Amino acid sequence: MADSFLFNVAESVLGKLGCLALQEFSLAWGLESDLEKIKDNLKVIKAVLLDAEQQRSQNPQIEVWLENLKEVLYDAEDVVDEFECEVLRRQVVKSGNTTRKVRRFFSRSNPLTFRFTMGHKLKQIRETVDEVAALKSKFGLTERIFYRNINHGERQMTHSFIDASNVIGREQARNDIIETLLQCVDGENVSIIPIVGIGGIGKTTLAKLVYNDQRIATHFELKLWVCVSDVFELDEVIIKVLDSASTGQRYTDMGIDQLQITLREALNGKKYLLILDDVWSENPRKWGELKTLLMGGADGRQQEKQNPNLKRIGEEIVRKCKGVPLAVITLGSLLYSVTDEREWEFIRDNEIWKLEQKEDDILPALRLSYEHLPSYLKRCFAYCSIFPKDYIMDDIELVYLWMANGLVQCSNENQELEDIGFRYFKELCSRCFFQDFAEYGGVVKCKMHDLIHDLALSVTQNECSMVRTSTQQIPKSVRHISFPYPQSLPNDLPKSLQNLDRVRTICCESERKEGISSEAFIKTCFSRFQYLRFLNLSYSRFEVLPKSIGNLKHLKYLNLWRSRTIQRLPNSICKLQSLQVLLLYGCRSLEELPKDIKYMINLRFLWITTKQKYLPTGGIGCLKSLRFLFISWCNNLECLFEDMQGLKKLRRLIIRYCSSLKSLPQSIKCLTALETLCIEGCENLDLTIEEGRRQSIPNSIQPPKTRVRILAKISGVSTMAYSRIYQQLKSYES
């Protein structure tokens, strides 16, 4: 059964209701009984959600009930987030180095009022949840078990060694696999035996038994063991295969073409066994590319036989797709690894095909692909409807958009939210929901097909709205608003927006690259929409951002991309402790960064363009949560901040087209989590190594683990300096 969209929302809210901060507040304020009642009722509701979602199209009352439930879930999330905002505010106020003036800057006028207000809101949520829970009994809904897709956590690299004497009960399975491997028949010489099952069942152990068996060593000229793990990148897999082949060469500095040639040379004419362990990817395109490269060895065993029933059912599904490639590709990516005939028949016989369709309407085929997405991917995909058609998205942008709206969830504290978000992006790519891929500077850009975009709009369930005219009717349930023509916005909110008070997203993404110019409109939005998480004001044409932005305590994403006329940011912006992303790229008139930027303690991604000559200490260097730092087109910038040692979580540092930059700080060597360093277009940057001193910054970087890869694209420096730097960087990659 397809995962429920609301099921994921309910799980997210339940997770937040269990957070330590809220538990402490409720205990101190005598609200623990209200909190427990909310959680108990939500658990009961969640148990019947799968059945309710399946019946909603046949029962209008259930449809209304689910809409009411969605509203109360989002309201509960808003209340919980207010507690989290208060925790962050107190964290700043209590920090040891804050002065009385700073404490006054962040203090609330009346803590008792906050306590009373939040207590009242929590009780209101409890009463509303009680009402929704009481109504469910009249629908005769049944509880259904939800089988969760495994959230692939990080695993340690595996190896091929095993002591067979310690393994009991696997002899028959081992012998069956070996017997199959030893069958040598003519035909396609790349054959595959999958070993599948839940984690911990012993798949790797069984593979090791096969790999180390003497019969295998005698039969195959070459044995290769590769641990693939989460990320299935073709070049990395090839390098691991070549390393396992022990050819004694270095491959990390080879391009993909040279890697392919080297792999073919290593395997050509040889009978080999390649075991790929810890594989998660089901991307058919990448598997096809790898399989093509592996062909060329000596004859192996025969491919498994095709299932004639699946072929017949597949042809029937294709006919229902009316031969339209997008529909065929999307459903094909869904069924690629499915061998159960019942799953194929479910797609073929689904009621969606019977919906009334216009000529050449392929939406039912796409809808089926959407319905089979895991619930967490459904929400991420639906959110993409906030962008206009043909909008070019990039993976970093999407991941942080999802994070800002709480769509990226992590149960393992050792996992980075960004990594989970990138995995979501790759899953949607593998299911053909994105297309037209291009990569630039490590950033993957893509688009949505027009019909896929239509699908996203159709499943947003009245949450997203693109406002093209001031007279457009907008449902009160809308929480995400996009203005494709922000340059024509009036000074006041259109009447259709004045009844909305729970908006989370405002996206002024112009199709013509023209931004908003009405400062009055922005001020109205700041005062009206207190629950904003995401605010895109790119290409704006005002000089000063209103001070009232400091009141948007829920804001997590602020985009001022290419707002070329903006001259300064109010210091009140530093009150945004929830802010995760601040994009100031292309703000060439910006005089300086806010002086108290160090108090934006939750910032994870910062991209700046500024007229400053120096980035002072005690600013960016204090942002301990920072993962991505991009510094671009700062033409006056001569040196960076000296206290980089505080950026213990920084993963990517990009410095581009800072023509006056002369040096980099010594503390750059302390960036222990750094994975990517890119320097480009900094023609005055001195990277020459001085005798007796370690001033050449890339030479000072000391990655703690070999997993760190440092990439440098340095232009405008002397050939000698570049050569020595490049050699040093290569040595760190090994």
UniProtKB/TrEMBL annotation:
InterPro entries recorded: LRR_dom_sf (IPR032675), LRR_R13L4/SHOC2-like (IPR055414), NB-ARC (IPR002182), P-loop_NTPase (IPR027417), RX-like_CC (IPR038005), Rx_N (IPR041118), WH-like_DNA-bd_sf (IPR036388), WHD_DRP (IPR058922)
The Disease resistance protein winged helix domain, residue ranges: 386-456
GO biological process: one example: defense response
Keywords recorded for this protein, A-Z: ATP-binding, Coiled coil, Nucleotide-binding, Plant defense, Repeat
Pfam family, one: NB-ARC
Domain NB-ARC stretches: 172-292
Residue span(s) of domain Disease resistance R13L4/SHOC-2-like LRR: 524-687
Domain (Disease resistance N-terminal): residue spans on this chain: 10-97
GO-annotated molecular function: ADP binding; ATP binding
Superkingdom to which the source organism belongs: Eukaryota
Coiled-coil spans in chain: 35-86
Protein's name according to its UniProt entry: Uncharacterized protein
Organism of this sequence: Hevea brasiliensis
Lineage of origin: Eukaryota, Viridiplantae, Streptophyta, Embryophyta, Tracheophyta
